[in-house]
Amino acid sequence: MGDTPLHRDGNWLAGPLSEILAVEPTRAWWRCPTCGMAGPLAQLHVYGPEPGLTARCPGCTRVALRLVKEADHVWLTMGGATGAFRFRTA
Amino acid sequence: MGTFSPGFHGRARGLADKLPPGQYPTESFPVLSAGPTPRVPTETWTFTVTTENGDSRGWTWDEMMALPQEDTVHDIHCVTRWSKFDTPWRGVPVDAFLEDVETAADYAVAVSHGGYTTNLPLEDLLDGKAWVVHTYDGFPLSPEHGGPARLLVPHLYFWKSAKWVRELRLTLEDEPGFWESVGYHNYGDPWREQRTWDD
Questions:
Q1: CA-based Rg of chain B, rounded to a whole angstrom?
Q2: Domain of life of the organism in this record (chain A) (predicted)?
Q3: Which among A1, A22, A63, B178 has the fewest CB atoms less than 10 Å away?
């Protein structure tokens, strides 16, 4: 169990992000402010889905995005540790 | 907090009394993770209490293990709706780490290896309500479950029981942690079903 990867690839973000973004999320690129690694959304390491999705830089594990789905809302932070947005989805 | 033999609660109380609203019982011990599992050797492990003034006091692994230890059995409740009954732990009550600490703080932030944080009222960590645990069911706590040591605060949803805990930061103001800042409830009482911000 110890060496089993706990994360999935960034395509797991596509569904939840498409609920709140007007553009196709899988075409997004992300650049890490800590280690400088850049790449498409799919390269992020995604942990979850419960209690929420946490996407991390594959190079340095810095949090790139956090997303929590509730029945009527999606909570989202991009990059930073605090300052989440709550979007109504229903 | 008393010490109970495993199963004592189970025979004495019915399922309805043990299961908070919206939860289901499980025999397994699910692993939920928001990042890679830190591997922290006990040789370099430390636990630090930092006050609102920046004063800090630290314990090495050996110093922590030299403190009075308690065996304690609890039901645990995850916000993802599973509950596990009669889980047996061994560790040090948080009271022991705060005994000689001078503070006016009303809140605490548990800080973990890997960057995870969770916030609690300080009083929820005192008076035998919380532990730093290193042993589960007679074995050293595995890294997947927060070893070598995690916080155990069984009266709140289990995200408050921070895995890989390395610091308690005492604060005058409440500072929402990793999940609390993205919609999860600030306090997280399973019996009041305080799952999300609106509950």
A1: 16
A2: Bacteria
A3: A22
